[in-house]
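Hey, quick one: can you model this chain's 3D structure?
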Amino acid sequence: MPTPLFEPCIPTPGKVVPAGKDWLHEIKHDGYRLIVQRDGTRLRLFTRNGYDWADRFPLIREAALRNRCQRFVIDGEAVLLGTDGRSDFNRLHSRRHNDEVQLYTFDILGIEGDNLRELPLHERKTRLARLFARRVDGIFLSDFEQGEIGPDLYRHACLMGLEGLVSKHRDRPYRAGRSRDWIKVKNRNHPAMSRVMEALS
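Sure thing. Here's the predicted structure for all 201 residues.
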């Protein structure tokens, strides 16, 4: 099993969504976390456990290889969207629809050999938006909101049956492992919560 060069930042579970002006809020999509690393024509899609799934998700692979930039590392969530536009984890997990899986990317760790992890999040977001200024099927920029709207956004996410919210401090660097600068608040009525409880039982 290859060792990934970049380890993911893991959100800290929370019960309250931060409401301060320095927080960015993203919808939590129900899928598989992936670190996408491109080096010329070589592409790897690393899972949290270090497995390379580049051959599993052709849409993500082809979108990354079509980008004008030859070397980059991005962080995101591989999802399978249903007809209602929401992520469908059961269909994703079945592996019968691998050719439809796409990536919602929310962070960039490196580009053209430059390590961006020490930059504050809001600067990394700007770099990421530039990298994917041209939309290509297979990789999408994850939307976010900033500031006091967080708790209201979380309530609406729950009403829509989404998994929850991840809030991130806009001025912090990217750190591997569990981070208190990223707070994940889950919708307790979402099926993902049932999977967590089953894993713990």
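One thing worth noting: The first strand starts at residue 9 and ends at 13.
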